[in-house]
User: Which sequence fits this backbone?
C-alpha cells in the first residue's frame, strides 16, 4: 500500500477509516485514556489500569 509515503498527507479521518477496514495494519493493541497509555497486551496490566481508571456512574 506504500503507506509510509501516504500517511503524512492523509487527514485523521482517512487514517481512522483505513485502520477500521484492515485490522492487519495494527501491530499491537493500544489503549489510550485520560490517565494511561498501554502498548502491547499484558492482561494483568490492562485489567489493573481499566479497573483503576473506571469512573463511577
Assistant:
Amino acid at each position: 500500500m506504500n503507506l509510509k509515503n501516504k500517511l503524512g498527507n492523509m487527514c485523521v479521518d482517512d487514517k481512522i477509516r483505513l485502520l477500521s477496514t484492515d485490522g492487519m495494519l495494527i501491530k499491537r493493541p493500544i489503549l489510550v485514556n485520560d490517565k494511561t497509555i498501554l502498548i502491547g497486551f499484558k492482561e494483568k496490566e490492562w485489567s489493573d489500569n481499566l479497573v483503576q481508571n473506571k469512573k463511577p456512574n
Residues 3-52 form one domain.
